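Researcher: Let's do a round of design. I'm pasting the structure tokens now; please hold your answer until I've finished.
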């Protein structure tokens, strides 16, 4: 059966990178004789509705944007026979990186046709889906700074934001209950991941699996700001897992709270706030990956 494709394009992604990629995607699909149509998304809600319409038509949805666009598409496509394909066109592109999807738009479009379907888990914060890593605490401040940054471009914005956030940080107390087992600590942040990477290639959970029905949890505990700064580069190679100031857990239902309110960010955007319950839905989303 030949696939038909609905291309959903976020025009604001990475300063227009998705729009720049579109001609190469069209060319690749045309070369392979694939039927396709294109929709420019206006909002998260619009992207969700267009993905639902694609499901009704039996189309494969191709996301041209960043990790933030994948959230509403995952919500629309999970539990259906329609698959999601990704042309990485955002700032971080972490899920595409983890899946091994090529950066070049034409090559990524070929994966949509010639790749294989994988069934992936989808996590959610109080019902709002995400594919990568949800985090809060110091990460809440860093994400906000990164989203507001105008001068710093590319993946460097995440390092810039982390340093800015760290300078102003005051320790918080967190409560994290993993499948009924409670952990309380004072420190920097909590992260709950379905995938391995966030922030443009930070390997927060090197051993995480996208389809194991489990969420990986990291507790970032108290240490001096100088020590935290020294530890930060380790995240890019996953070496922080041996730190005395991190604890790793794994479970299906994660209850989180904090002694002051924090926005919970996932895939670059705020999708909830503490207190919250984070859950995982196992192997419910079809995603095209390299064969």
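Researcher: That's everything. Go ahead.
Model: Designed sequence:
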């Amino acid at each position: 059966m030949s696939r038909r494709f609905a291309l959903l394009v976020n025009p604001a992604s990475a300063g227009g990178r998705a729009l720049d990629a579109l001609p190469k995607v069209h060319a690749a699909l045309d070369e392979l004789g694939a039927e396709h149509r294109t929709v420019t998304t206006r909002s998260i809600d619009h992207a969700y509705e267009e993905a639902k319409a694609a499901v009704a038509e039996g189309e494969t949805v191709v996301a041209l944007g960043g990790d933030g666009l994948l959230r509403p598409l995952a919500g629309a496509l999970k539990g259906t026979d329609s698959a999601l394909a990704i042309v990485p066109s955002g700032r971080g592109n972490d899920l595409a990186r983890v899946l091994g999807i090529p950066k070049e738009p034409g090559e990524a479009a070929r994966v949509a046709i010639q790749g294989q379907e994988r069934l992936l888990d989808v996590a959610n914060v109080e019902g709002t889906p995400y594919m990568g890593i949800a985090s809060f605490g110091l990460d809440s401040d860093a994400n906000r700074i990164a989203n507001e940054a105008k001068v710093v471009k590319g993946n460097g914005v995440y390092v810039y934001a982390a340093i800015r956030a760290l300078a102003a940080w005051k320790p918080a107390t967190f409560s994290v209950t993993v499948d009924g087992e409670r952990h309380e600590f004072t420190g920097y942040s909590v992260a709950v991941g379905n995938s391995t990477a966030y922030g443009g290639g930070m390997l927060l959970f090197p051993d995480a699996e996208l389809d194991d029905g489990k969420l990986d949890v990291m507790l970032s505990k108290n240490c001096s700001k100088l020590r935290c700064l020294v530890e930060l580069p380790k995240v890019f190679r996953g070496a922080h897992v041996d730190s005395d100031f991190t604890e790793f857990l794994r479970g299906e239902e994660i209850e989180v709270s904090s002694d002051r309110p924090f926005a919970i960010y996932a895939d670059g955007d705020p999708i909830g706030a503490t207190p919250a319950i984070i859950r995982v839905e196992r192997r419910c989303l079809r995603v095209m990956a390299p064969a």
